[in-house]
Each structure stands twice: as C-alpha cells, then as structure tokens.
Write a structure and sequence with these properties.
Chains A, B: This is Phosphoribosyl-AMP cyclohydrolase. The structure is a homodimer of 118-residue chains. Chain A has one domain: Ubiquitin-like (UB roll) (Roll), CATH 3.10.20.810. The termini of chain A are far apart. The first copy, chain A, is globular, with a radius of gyration of 15 Å. Chain A has 118 residues and is mostly beta strands.
C-alpha cells in the first residue's frame, strides 16, 4: 500500500506537485501538498493542495470551478516531488490562462506566449 | 531584458525547475537552480542546476553524457518556478530511466511504469 508519510517533505512538511494535463502533456502549474493533501487527493480524485499563504487546504477549483480531476499521481525517484496527471476544467492559472507558465524567455527578453481565456 | 535576479528564490537562494522533453511533453525531472545557474543555462543552452547535495553547479549530463539541450525556458505567474523545455540525450534519471517519475500510485499501490534503459 502507498503511504503518504513515506514521501520526503521539506522543513515545512510540504512537497511540490506538478499538475500536467493528461490529454495534452501541457504543464499547468506547480503547488504544494502536505501528507494530508496527498491523502485527500487520492481519496477524492480532486487535486487538493496546501495553500502556504492561506495556511489551509485548497481544493483546486473549489471557488473558481476550475477543478483538477486526478487521472494519476506519480512519485519521483527521490520521493520529494509529485506529478499529478489531471483533467483540468477551465484555466489552471489565477490569471485565467490555461497554464501558469505563460512567460517564455526568448533572446534574453520575456515574451507572453498565452493569453487569458475569454 | 530578462534578469535572473527578478525571480523569486527560496530561503536558500534556489528555485525549482521542471525539465520537460520538448518533443513529447514528457516531464523528466525536477531540480534546483540559483540565479547563476539560470544565467548559465540561458547563456550556454546546456541546462545547469545547483546540486544541493554537492553544493556545486551541475551541468546536467556533464559526467553521464545525458545532457539537456535547452529549447526554451519559461517562468510561472508567481516567478517562483521554472519550466525548461529540453532535448534530453539518453535517460534523465540517475536510475537510467527516461524520467524520474517512473512510479505511479494505482489503486493505493505503487506501480513501476518505466524500466531502466538498456
């Protein structure tokens, strides 16, 4: 059996989790989980982070409706990073863009490569 | 102009960087950079991390030959996480697997979904 306590958490009890759109492979965002958030994500199938600013569980999309349905959770070789394959409803980013990684560095300058959704 | 000092680093002066295979979208690994590693990555086109264990710059593949050629570096909305689109030579993981995320959690158990390369 998988035990969330078997993962390696940082000094704050947190582990980073990458959310990747299962259908397209697009990397959407990175946020943090504690052991309980990992357990809730697996139990509910709704990706649940720990909000460092609010110091509270953060069921992604709970207020915005932009939920992340878990397709599969993966663990890396060092057990200190997670990869969540998700089915994202609407934009993942709080700026209303599909992904948080909408800024590219090209020829030494920042270029916005993704617009907010309508 | 993009200035690596404009990113948000943690208390240790580090920022996490996801390496994603540019051709396939596969997430390969996550490692850390400091501002100088970001600058070197952009200047050389060879993805360069900061090794927390060795406390030294880590030009990915320098000893193994499994280099990561940078296709594009992206910054997230909070400026505290990087996404490097790369062309990976050979396996990215030190276990000789293509990706470090070779363990999936399925039905509450850990399943190895990727074998070491030959």
């Amino acid at each position: 059996m998988f035990d969330p306590a078997s993962l390696k958490y940082d000094a704050n009890g947190l582990i980073p989790c990458i959310a990747q759109e299962a259908a397209t492979g697009e990397v959407l965002m990175v946020a943090w989980m504690n052991a309980e958030a990992v357990a809730r994500t697996l139990a509910t199938g709704r990706v649940t982070y720990w909000s460092r600013s609010r110091r509270a569980f953060w069921v992604k999309g709970e207020s915005s409706g932009h939920v992340q349905e878990l397709a599969e959770l993966r663990v890396d070789c060092d057990r200190d990073c997670l990869l969540a394959l998700v089915r994202q409803s609407g934009p993942a980013c709080h700026t209303n863009r599909r992904s948080c990684f909408f800024t590219a560095i090209r020829d030494g300058a920042e270029v916005e490569i993704m617009q907010p959704e309508g």
